[in-house]
Design goal:
169 residues, mainly alpha, 7 helices
Length: 169
């Protein structure tokens, strides 16, 4: 009952999962290749910067990964999962609720992975900092998944419609 729609949703959205994984790996690969913790474009982007703050999103990476990659892919996956489960297309408020539930589910799974990594496997990277974030970031990730992440697929749809309308005439 649960596995079939999950595999169907994964099959239908595999391009989004692949894009998210590749986007997530860019700063990781950069840090391992250069042995520096600061990624030039991602780490100095917001006006207040403090390298030890995990509660307040201080840069594009700590703000972007939880809600763009994890939450938005979860929102897309969650809507597709529920549409397959109930065997009908969602629209309006049902679609939004599906996106919120999917976003929260993926963010909750990510928080569990972060907690396990921080608690049991937290090596120091070659750049001198820990690989996993601490517990002070978990509430922020869930809050972003609840408030912001379900809106990202709507933004993607809007950009696609504008692109199609103005550039693909």
């Amino acid at each position: 009952m649960v596995i079939g729609p999950a595999l169907g949703s994964l099959n239908k959205n595999k391009k989004w999962v692949l894009i998210g994984a590749l986007l997530y790996m860019i700063p990781v690969i950069y840090r391992y290749a250069t042995k520096h913790s600061v990624v030039p474009i991602l780490d100095d982007t917001l006006f207040f910067y403090h390298s030890n703050s995990q509660t307040i999103p201080v840069n594009l990476e700590t703000f972007g990964i939880p809600f763009i990659i994890i939450g938005a892919i979860g929102a897309i996956f969650g809507t597709t999962y529920l549409e397959i489960l109930f065997n009908r297309r969602f629209a309006g408020f049902e679609k939004y609720v599906g996106r919120v539930l999917g976003s929260l589910f993926f963010a909750f799974c990510w928080v569990i992975i972060q907690f396990l990594g921080y608690s049991f496997f937290n090596p120091i990277g070659p750049w001198g900092n820990h690989i996993w974030v601490g517990p002070d970031a978990y509430a922020r990730n869930l809050l972003l998944a609840l408030v912001v992440s379900p809106l990202i697929p709507y933004l993607i749809e809007l950009i696609y419609k504008l692109f199609k309308r103005f550039l693909m005439k």
